[in-house]
Amino acid sequence: MQFLEHLELAILIPLLGGIFVLAFHSRPRLREASSILAGVLLFLYITQLLGLDPAQDHLRTLLEISPGLSIAFHLEPLGLVFALLASGLWVITTVYSIGYLNGNAEKNQTRFYLFFAMSIASAMGIALAANLFTLFIFYETLTLCTYPLVTHKQTSEAQSGGRIYLGVLLGTSIMFFLSALVITWIQAGTLDFVSGGILEGKLGGTASVLLFTLFMLGIGKAALMPFHRWLPAAMVAPTPVSALLHAVAVVKAGVFSVLKISVYVFGIDFIAEQDASVWVLWLAVATMLIASVIALSKDNLKARLAYSTISQLSYIVIGAALAWPAAALGGALHIVTHAFGKITLFFCAGAIYTATKCTHVSQFNGLGHKMPFTFAAYLLGALSVIGLPPFAGSWSKWLLVEGSASTQHYIVLGAFGLSTLLNCAYLLPVALRAFFKPPSPDVAAAGPGIREAPLACLIPLCATAAGTVLLFFYIQPLYDFLYPVFNP
């Protein structure tokens, strides 16, 4: 089992998958099989890493640039959970992509699968990063690898969305993230991720508030307002890309970085003692509520889901900013529970488009009788995102609420309650229209021609919807695995 400690395999496996995708560019079945096989192998490799003891120093240094500055990987529970989530959902999303891309006769499929693989490789680098420098390198690589996916359709709208995507994410990371990294290097003398943080006794007061704020604004993938516009702009991409952005890699890489830096650079206790997160907490609360209100106004389903994601990401930032172990653990669990709920919703949006070419909620009246599995799966995903039991999202939201009450942030507690009501208001009407309203003119005109999307679309969305229920009953092993990260 010595090969398991070669952590760079987590990056090499998807890259090799990408090479085979290129090699079989003229043979679609083999190209698609290569992508699925790479995903399965990566998932199996990550599951094997779970068997290693994270308490031991599993450190793999690839390149030492100068003493204390290197590209290196290590094992720790939070990163392993993110790696397992991204690799597992890559397999499901690839199967879904086959049905979606073929069902909509999308062009440039080889390029799609290639950059999808490169994006997952970048996400693995983020998940296993042993220091801030490595995290920053792969964070930037992920932005660049997902740009061709956002602009996949090559239309003027796609190009415009891609420019916003690239401009906001590169701009925030270079202006704020890189600046915060340099300040940390100067003040702490190291960029290594260390349990309890590296800034104790090196920084305090207003300086700690400013540094924490720089990091949180610099992680543009967490979509805090006003640096959120890239996410709705990226909705011009095909739905499998939207699923990648919202559940598998990009936004989850953002909020994962928020938690990783909070725990291993600052330390939860240090944030609480210095009140370092005071500005970020209220910015995240405002983002959570404003994005939900905007989602209410969107008739386009993908746009509505995009603003829903912005709101839900703020839950995780709030979990870190509350600087309370239960809240931070709730934020970590929310990365997983939100991923399953939101990827289900995007899969359903793509399946609806594939089967009907409808994109707006107002067009969905009566569709539930034509596409019962799709809209039933949508309802399960929506209930999980809302946070109702017996669905996975209820556990992470419970811990976030507990953290708000324990730290006596009653305004935050009230904001969570209001946000949940807004979740109901913009998510549930989609399913209610489909099942209980008379058919819209578009649906009536199509008549018996409307049916469920291809099985390659339908099976993944049913699987992730089932995952939102299964996670509710089997959340304890995940909770136990992550607990030591926030309660050292």
Structural descriptors:
single chain; 488 residues; mainly alpha; two-stranded antiparallel ribbon; globular
The gist of it:
With 488 residues, the chain is mostly helical. It has 20 helices and two strands.
Number of E-type strands? 2
Secondary-structure element order, N to C: HHEEHHHHHHHHHHHHHHHHHH
Placed side by side, the strands forming the largest sheet appear as 1-2
Q: For the terminal residues, how far apart are their CA atoms?
A: 28 Å
- Global geometry: globular
Taking all Cα atoms into account, the compactness measure Rg is: 21 Å
- The poorly predicted ranges are none
Largest sheet: 2 strands, antiparallel
Overall structural class, as computed from helix and strand content, comes to mainly alpha
If helices are DSSP runs of H or I spanning 4 or more residues, what is the number of helices? Answer: 20
Q: Mean pLDDT, as a whole number?
A: 90
Proportion of helical residues: over 70%
Percentage of β-strand residues = under 5%
What does this protein structure show overall?
The protein has 488 residues and is mostly helical. The chain has a domain at 277-488. 72% of the residues lie in helices and 3% in strands. The protein contains 20 helices and 2 strands. Strands 1-2 form a two-stranded antiparallel sheet. Strand 1 and strand 2 form a beta hairpin. The longest helix has 33 residues, at 156-188. The chain is globular. The two termini are 28 Å apart.
